[in-house]
């Protein structure tokens, strides 16, 4: 798999049309923007595209950190992914809330839409949905949370969303979080579950670096 397809987390090629939103899920509106700030821990993912499933098995842990841009119009995303003994980072994506109250994931350089956020019942969960066009359309979803102590109900809700995309619960890969290569520390002076990421060993993405949801272009 070449570098271009692996350098951006959630490197997606097309946005699901409005009538394809699974299970009648609602996307976040403008009031959600401030609630998205901070760190989201990668919990699990499920993807139809075989290379994506292989990549997820290589990831020990990952998370993303959101902060407002200088203009305040977008939320900038920094990604941290632990593979082996290295913590890889990139900041090539951002969130944009459109006039239709859709929260889009876009590429920072091309401004192309790469995915969208889906809403779950808990404000402490974040669900990213994408599709990728090859010889057919491949679907996938990635679950993030404010902390790793998600409930059984949270897992079942995620499984339901995955099944609505034609995937099976057995295809979900949960991040083991066995190492501390990409360290996370609590925000200072806050009782919030939001966290601030600190990379213990940080490097630029290398060829073959697995990113949850990378398109493999």
Euclidean distance between termini CA atoms: 8 Å
- The proportion of residues forming helix, as a percent range, comes to 10-25%
What is the ordering of alpha helices and beta strands? Answer: EHEEEEEEEHEEEE
- Cross-sheet strand order for the largest sheet: 1-2-3-4-5-6-7-8
Q: Give the helix/strand class.
A: mainly beta
Describe this entry's structure for a reader.
There is one protein chain. By secondary structure, the chain is mainly β. The protein contains 2 helices and 12 strands, in the order βαβββββββαββββ. An 8-stranded antiparallel barrel has the order 1-2-3-4-5-6-7-8. The longest helix has 13 residues. The radius of gyration is 16 Å and the shape is globular. The termini are close together. The N terminus is likely disordered.
Give the topology, please.
Blueprint: E1 38-47, H1 50-58, E2 61-68, E3 74-83, E4 86-97, E5 103-107, E6 113-118, E7 125-133, E8 137-145, H2 152-164, E9 173-174, E10 182-186, E11 195-199, E12 202-203
Q: Could you give a short description of this structure?
A:
Helices cover 10% and strands 38% of the residues.
Name its key features.
single chain, 217 residues, eight-stranded antiparallel barrel, two-stranded antiparallel ribbon, 2 helices, 12 strands, 38% strand, globular
